[in-house]
Amino acid sequence: FLVEDIRNFSIIAHVDHGKSTLADRLLELTGTIDKTKNNKQVLDKLQVERERGITVKAQTASLFYSFQGKQYLLNLIDTPGHVDFSYEVSRSLSACQGVLLVIDANEGIQAQTVANFFLAFEAQLTVIPVINKIDLKNADPDMVEKQIEKVFDIPSDECIKISAKLGTNVESVLQAVIERIPPPKVHRKNPLRALVFDSTFDQYRGVIANVALFDGVVSKGDKIVSAHNQKTYEVNEVGVLNPNEKSTHKLLGFLGLLHMEVFNQRLEQEYNAAVILTTPTVPYKAVLSSAKLIKEYRQKEITIINPAQFPDKPKVTEYLEPIVLGTIITPDEYTGKIMMLCQARRAVQQNMMFIDQSRVMLKYLFPLNEIVVDFYDSLKSLSSGYASFDYEDAGYQTAELVKMDILLNGNIVEELVTIVHKDKAHTVGKTICERLKDTLPRQLFEIAIQAAIGSKIVARETVKPYRKNVLAKCYGGDITRKMKLLKRQAEGKKRMRKIGNIEVPKDAFIKVLKTQ
Ligand code: GDP
Ligand code: MG
């Protein structure tokens, strides 16, 4: 293929607006997958993604399409759709020249639509607005067209109206990809320069890297060097992608609770590994106070990722916390409640705008740690599911931070060490203790649950003892039955984590970190 006959594009959309369905139709239209087979969401192939109906990991497919007598190679780079995965979205986008921005004709622009649009816009990509689900009874594509013009400044005649489900007008999406998105700029004569936007490891084939080529050519037998670690690799095989490439994963830090749960599930399903999760934490920074410390750490400012390594005040002149610019789109009737929620999360309003007669777009600066755990769930529940949310990086700001320990009978629970804002320590500590009390099974002795800042206890709960005897139900001396029960109890214990002499179920921490 000549470079001018290649198009690299992504589909971006708010969750459930039809990205996967459109991808399936595009794969069918180009003969990449068979129409007769059950093609529900071919790109969402990981098991958890299917179970939860969301896309976590970028997948890629190469489509071949003939248009006006010419064959084109269209690389469809899939992006995750959920709010917790914006890092993977921008990574995938850096391999593209254009995007299809899919918007539900019934729901209109949502927060992720806005956030994704700006990621694409900042990367200077061509944006093709696609209004989907025009077959729905309540679809209002004209209203959505007006929103698109108002929020993104895209003329309404650039919108393509389709039904991905029925296949209506999907062909014109492919044509727009060819006509509106520029081919990649690759200078084949230059030395090789490529971006690895995804990579996997195959036991038999070695590392499989999905790359976007910027300069040069790559062929079998070439020796290539990684700019990242300077290691040399030999190219064994070169190919284009199809949706049946196998995929594994390396861990990216957790950005949100859903993210954490999905990875927990993935690790267990794909690697059969039992994992223990820690509190999702955001990268804080600390400005060191003395020349001696600066010398010791070899820098003025240190990043704290593990709350257990939080340096105390005498060592530090100032703490900094990451902040994000959040976008919320909501029916106007929920605006008041949402503003109160944002205020409680230490957020500062930046902007407010009506995107049509009944819907409002709010912009707030949030401390990242105020939204990583349960902000999304709270927003959803106070707006009956109608408000949508997404966010992007907005740098760092000064914050009064303290480290809080959670103790079970005096032993620190490493998984629950948290860094909190000073003003929130008592509330957060109380909530964690209360939730732990509800989650921990009673044991043979009393358990004291405490939240502490240094030696100061800020909250406390108690779990009363309980006598549990699995053999009590056995009558007489049926030894095989006794053995069976003891074995069953031992298996149950494998899913437990021991802190001091207290058995803690493995999912206790997720339950503690979640609201409800
Ligand atoms: P994604 O989260 O953006 O990948 O969305 P999906 O492709 O998974 O679609 C979400 C839901 O909308 C699914 O139940 C689809 O069947 C449905 N859907 C997608 N496209 C259409 C469409 O054009 N019309 C209708 N009525 N439903 C659609
Ligand atoms: Mg999907």
Automatic annotation (TrEMBL):
Name of the featured protein: GTP binding elongation factor GUF1
GO cellular component, one term: mitochondrial inner membrane
Molecular-function GO term, any one: mitochondrial ribosome binding
Localisation: Mitochondrion inner membrane
Residue ranges occupied by any Tr-type G domain in the UniProt entry: 4-185
Job description of the protein: Promotes mitochondrial protein synthesis. May act as a fidelity factor of the translation reaction, by catalyzing a one-codon backward translocation of tRNAs on improperly translocated ribosomes. Binds to mitochondrial ribosomes in a GTP-dependent manner.
Chain residues that bind GTP: 13-20, 78-82, 132-135
